[in-house]
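Morning!

As promised:
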Amino acid sequence: MAVNGTSSEYLLPCGRDVDEVWSGLGEPVDVHERDCPHCRATRGSLLVLRDVTRELADDETEPSRDLTGRIMAAVRADLRRHDLLPLPTPEPGSLEVSAQAVAAVVRFAADGVAGVRARRCRVTAGAAAGALAVELNLAVSYHGFVRHLLDDVRDRVESAVGARIGVRLERLDLVLDDLYEDG
Amino acid sequence: MTAAAALDTATLVARARDGDVPAYEQLVRRYQGQMFRLAVRMLSSRGDAEDVVQEVFLTAWRRLGQLHADDAFVGWLYRATTNRCLNVLRARRPVTDVEPDETPSTGAAGLPDRAAETSAQLAALVDALDRLTGEQRACWLLREVHGRSYEEIAETIGTTSAAVRGRIARARAQLAEVMEPWR
């Protein structure tokens, strides 16, 4: 590998630079290097460096056990502050609810129907002021699947959102994207 | 969760972007060690390194939506970790060139346990790393220990690939000198 003169200030007294010696580590020693004490010494040091660098790369020092927990607590706290959706209020000022809080209510209501497992849930503001739109993905039991199941989910979710959040669901899209075996 | 353990990073990133907290937790568990080891070698302090890693993962969570591609996540983590470490170093002390011999002996508090380094060579390397400038150390660690590309490092540090090669060459020459006794 050619190194231009400006990139290395480490010229050896023989005129070669450290980087040249480094590049040649994988190759047999050339005539100059074999006889040059500077190059030989540098080559020796670089070989040690290469081994120790490997040792450093293999190092598996881990952070404290609770670091993941601390990171995830910060992430969850951040979730609670974001994705706020406006709610209708007769009072001056504004009222907001987090999309995740609504999603939790929706999932809980859907999970209450036997043979249904809520999966992804996306909550967005509806077209009308203070209304919400929800898209909920579901998995249903392979054995327990009956036609009125999705109607049950719809009823439960709509009433839960109305009763627990006090908001009208403008739109509820149910996406049945999986079946599961009862274990 | 057990099913998610085998998922590839791009899938987990896509899910996390959608607000899937357990998927993000998988990402944190997968990459926190790597980022911590980079930070701890940059900062010589486990406590500071953990703070950096925590901030990086919280910021990453907030910016998932801005990520161009799901497979750009790891590169982003490296960039954010490196830059935060450099900021911590800048805040620690005014930019004065301290003579290597006058470098205050590093106190015990918060430092990686030097006695735990598996070899004298490794301990010497870690000490020598501390005497490089922050940017040199970052370039060398990212390339030689974490295997990142010159282009990526250049983008991280805000310079050219040629300048990165130059810094790594200088760092390598300085580190090789320290290896002399084990030649």
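Residues 21-43 of chain B form the longest helix (23 residues).

Hope this helps with the figure draft.
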